[in-house]
Amino acid sequence: MTQHEGRGPDDLKDRRAIRFGMRGDQDIIDCMVSWETLECLEGKPAANRAERLEWFERHRPQIEAAAIAKRHSAGSDVRTISLGPEDLHAQVA
Fold first, then answer.
1. Is residue 80 within 8 Å of residue 71, measured between CB atoms?
2. C-beta separation of 64 from 4 below 8 A
3. Residue environment code for 26-42, b if the CB has 16+ CB neighbours within 10 A, otherwise e
4. Which residue of 36, 75, 81, 93 could cross-link 31, Cys pair, CB 3.0 to 4.6 Å?
């Protein structure tokens, strides 16, 4: 079961991250996964926005699992979750 709210991911050039929404206990939580994280997962830099979004969708289950784990460790009052490479590596370990 996916946790996303149905809104497509946004590639935020100024934040160098992909923003996506996840359903929280009572509302939608904004999540950000850095471009660096996607590049670590793929082992190379992305050529463009379309490639980053493709990578995000390919790794979305792992990214959402990391967001859920980070949210649980941070507490239920979290409004924004930022994910870096270390958060996804923790899911693999």
1. no
2. yes
3. eebbebbbbbebbeebe
4. 81
Structure token pair of residue 7: 């809104």
pLDDT of residue 78: 74
pLDDT grade, residue 52 (50/70/90)?
Answer: very high
Calculate ∠ Cα 34-38-42, nearest 5°: 165
Chain segment 60-93, per-residue pLDDT in tens:
999 999 998 998 887 767 778 999 999 987 765 5
Contacts for 9 with CB less than 8 Å, ≥ 6 apart: 18, 19, 20, 53, 56, 57
- Which amino acid is present at 8? G
Q: Is the pTM of this model over 0.90?
A: no
Provide the pLDDT for residue 2: 45
